[in-house]
Amino acid sequence: MRPGHPFETSELDELRADQRRALRLIPVDVFLEHAPAVGPDVDNVAPVDRPMIETSLRTEAKGLLRELTSLLNGWRHYTQLETLDAFYQSNRAAAEQLDVRRQTTFFDQLEMAGTAHREAEMATPRVEDAPALRRLLFLLVWADGLSDYRDPRFASASAASAVPRERDERIIQVPAPPARRPSADDDDATELLAPADLP
């Protein structure tokens, strides 16, 4: 909110908060599959006008949120477990080293949440819900882009994807087998030798 600004109002701030909470209910895999990877180009939009466009996008998103209320509420518990599990996995080693389990039950609760998350089944959107979900994500991701906010799951996914690629490259770099000196038993004794094998 900016006092005196024609569009940057407390109502817009509240709408942002409500819709970002709703967006966070979507599990990571579903979010990354359906959300647009590229946000809006705002360079040619005057900063004073961006909240007006953002408000238009968020107003349209309201109807889709009502349409998808049941699906989003179905994801609520799963996403909470998913978030707690991710935090536990990232901090488990440090917690064990500091022996915080003797000081608090928090990490015991996180461990139980992680187990529950791995055993839980994530509700999948129905085929008929998928187009509405994609439209909702487009509207909200672009609305966030107009307010210079980007969902942190995009950055987390980019950081995580860099590690497997490096590991995969190491895996596929299999050294070539050593050259073999031809023997009299070979049908074709024309196999090439490495220079070190030459007499």
Summarize, please.
This protein is an all-alpha fold. It has seven helices and no strands.
Could you name the ranges where pLDDT drops below 50 across 5 or more consecutive residues?
165-178, 188-199
CA-based shape:
globular
The number of strands is 0
Average pLDDT for all residues: 78
The portion of residues forming beta strands comes to under 5%
Taking Cα atoms only, what radius of gyration do you get, to the nearest Å?
A: 27 Å
Give the end-to-end Cα distance, rounded to a whole number of Å: 83 Å
Structural class: mainly alpha
Total helical elements: 7
Q: Which descriptors apply to this entry?
A:
199 residues; mainly alpha; globular; disordered C terminus
What is the element layout, followed by pairings?
Elements: H1 10-24, H2 28-34, H3 50-67, H4 69-98, H5 106-119, H6 130-146, H7 152-172
